[in-house]
Design brief:
eight-stranded mixed sheet; four-stranded parallel sheet; Rossmann fold; globular; alpha/beta
Length: 553
Amino acid sequence: MTFLETIFERLERVADATVLREIHGGRFVPVTGGELMGMVRRARGFIAARGLRKGDRCALLAPNSIRWVALDLAMIAEGLIVVPLDVRQVPAELISMMKDSTPSLVICDPALAAGIRNAWPAAPDVVAIEEAFAKEEGTPAAPHHADHDAVTIIYTSGTSGEPKGVVLNSGNVTFMLGCTNARLDQLMGERRKPDQVFQYAPFCFAAAWILLLTSLSRNSVLTLSTDLTKLADEMKLAAPNYFVNVPMLLKRVRRKVEESIQKRGGWAAAVFGRAQRAYLQRRGGTISTADSICLALANAIMFPAIRRNIGPNLKALICGSAPLAAETQLFFMMLGIPVLQVYGLTETTAICTMDDPQHIEPGYVGPAVRGIEMIVADSGEILVRGPNVFPGYWQRPAETAKALEGGWFHTGDQGEFNARGNLRITGRLKNLIILNSGHNIAPEPIEQALAACLPEAQQVVLVGNRRSFLAALLTTVAVNGSADGLADGRVQPVLDTVNAGLPHYKQIRAFHIVPETFTAENGLLTTMGKLKRDAIAARYAREIEQLYEKKPA
């Protein structure tokens, strides 16, 4: 069975059970399997009435919702290729991606329809998402796809260039859902109750979409966040067993917990701090009796209370999209919440590796999924081959040939496998900083080391390409219009400590504090939290230039 046939079979089987729900005003708005299938049939009738043919593209531009899910399934069932787009992206990028994918139809949030028509006078039909459900339910034919049939074009985030449309086919998705279901079965064990899953990341991203389809294909209830400003409250209400995160969110949760403990002060702060130290010491094989007592006390009293506050039913947090600091992963493991890392790209149907819940190694992203081959080339680049690898980029044959040269997908990431087969990501080839001395430097490990020692910094970005030394941009929370959250006098001692463990050419010789954080809204992060390094360098070109004028090496 294809992934879509599996999902439809499951929805029909649980026609009276809740499978999907939204949160509005602190309340659940649920839909059963039968109700969702009814919505899919109405949407299929709408699509069929418009005369769209198999292989036509349809852009879907709306926030996560039950209607979004029904439309996605309906369009795939009718043989269309879905082009999901992120409502938070800047209009120029959205129009560019729509022009590139040449959709026959654009279905969008009503608030966006007029803007699309104004920005793109030559746009095809643009309809509000509600219109797709106006028809009565029909009896459409059962869907069927060959493995090679394209089902979606997902645009990459464009961290260092123009976004490209990644074509994924039915075979890619069917294979991947088998992998994700197997790993979640391993995490959850045998259970009769449905998995409780929470989702806040937009479905236009491959990892979020794969979680959606996985949830629809298994015994689970997926809860959709509808207000990111109330994310913490909605997460508590959903009380999930697991959900997909980005490192930025986990870092914020960790910081909030630590700040809360420090504000309490006294006995609580002392025990917590000593328990943290004891936990790391025990992992290293040495721990004193006094520290053991503090750790046991924290495990009995403090850590359970913190777990209940984060999520009383959490079996694990799943994390991907960007590098996760080992210190953050260890922090949650100390609390008794495993963090399972996943590594992959849109071109690999979101996933290549997944942590084994029974054998987590902090700092590693797990072993290759069964059925996927992964090797590290002489250059250090990670290469992937398997049923998860995409057939190509939309209308970009030259770039497809380059990406799939030699029968392997060239990820652009650098990494290394350890003796247990777990992968550690060490950098990205496109991010390499090449000094004028000829030294090649992957910035990510140094950025992570500095961020770990400087928790006041929201983000750390190294610069120095074709320069004589490395410099750093540090973001902080602005207070009263200035960068009061992070002082120069605090940064330099930390730099000295980090530099002491680095060879001379990797040492950071200058820094600049930016009194704002990099966000998707200001165009310096992707919506999944990845740094847009080229955009950051362009935005702060004058400040970077001044760093090198002030401090010649």
